[in-house]
Amino acid sequence: MGKPFRPFEGSATAWHSDPFFRARIKLTAWYVGFIVLILASFSGALFTSFNANVRRKPVHIDQELSREEIRNQFADDAASSLLLSLLIIDGIIFVVSAAASYTFAGYTLRPLQKTMAAQKRFVANASHELRTPLAVMQTDIEVLTRQDQTLSEQAKRTLASAMQELKVMKDLSNQMLSLSKAENSIISSNKTEFDLAVLLEEVYSRMKPLAEKKKIEMQIESTRVSIIHADQNHIDHVISNLIDNAIKYTKIGGKIMISLTKDKNNAVLQFKDTGIGISEKDLPHIFESFYKSDQSHSSEGAGLGLSIVKTLVTNNGGEIVLESKVGEGTNLTVKFLLL
């Protein structure tokens, strides 16, 4: 007998970190909302019609109370009984429909989930398989350039151009592999407690020479109350990438301000620069894979850096917000929960 079909098996139940789970909840909400609307309309119409008919029905009872008072009392009792019955029935239908909607939403999204999973596996496998031939080609060109003294200037220029393109392809392959790993880091991450301020200082010291090379003034301010629970390697990558982006898109003589502060129960990292900025139309797409804004088309990179950053931040329970204006610079805020 084949394996039973279970919607959202495995990583799809990764709760709030999984986009498929969020999509499933939204789809379930739409299904349930539609059912509730139908139930409310039907029950309201039934209750109104019943109440009106009861009050018009003649009552033949000889008591001290007037016939109208008896009719109203009988109608009120009947209406209350009907309302209670409708609420119980509607409640049962609501619970059953919610469970059924959640299940059917899983079946609806399952093919898309399988397709996305297959795509991620392909990207990871292709990126991994490309690394070896690219490394071999790079080594061959380097050896040929160093050892063959008979190469013409044209041949040298051609080989240099080929080496540059190989470097771009190698970086792209590495970034694609990093993105694939980041998207699966919910399972593979190694979360520990560490001081975010210490890590920030280490990355800052490592990146400062790059800023000095472009004559960019880079400053840092941090608080020592910054113990978080996350994957330290992931957060190192996040900080390094954001500082590297700030340096890359800030002109010579510009400024970069990095700060770490405490806001209630959150450690707040801010990266402000006086760089070229990002246009308003590009902002909604800036964290998408392979997206490059108009201002960054001429720069190196495949548009995967910020996508990897956001995935790592999200997988470590943080959030990231980007604000930017063309010609004024960019302000990027990252928050992590303090211990």
Short account of what is shown:
With 339 residues, the protein is an alpha+beta fold. 59% of the residues lie in helices and 14% in strands.
Helix- and strand-based class? alpha+beta
Distance between the termini: 49 Å
Number of strands: 7
Shape: elongated
What share of the residues lie within helices? Answer: 55-70%
The largest sheet, given as strand count, sense and whether it forms a barrel, is: 5 strands, mixed
Helical element count? 7
Mean pLDDT: 79
- Tally of domains: 2
Share in β-strands = 5-15%
Q: Can you tell me the residue ranges where pLDDT is under 50 for at least 5 consecutive residues?
A: 1-16
Strand order of the largest sheet: 2-4-5-7-6
What Rg is obtained from the alpha carbons, in whole angstroms? 31 Å
Order of helices and strands: HHHHEHEEHEEHEE
Give an overview of the whole structure.
The protein has 339 residues and is α+β, with helices and mostly antiparallel strands. The protein has two domains: 1-188, no CATH class; 190-337, 2-Layer Sandwich (Heat Shock Protein 90), CATH 3.30.565. The protein has seven helices and seven strands, in the order ααααβαββαββαββ. The strands form two sheets. Strands 2-4-5-7-6 form a five-stranded mixed beta sheet, covered by helices on one side. A hairpin with a 2-residue loop joins strand 4 and strand 5 (266-273). The longest helix has 81 residues, at 67-147. The chain is elongated. The relative contact order is 0.08. The model is unreliable at 1-16 (pLDDT under 50).
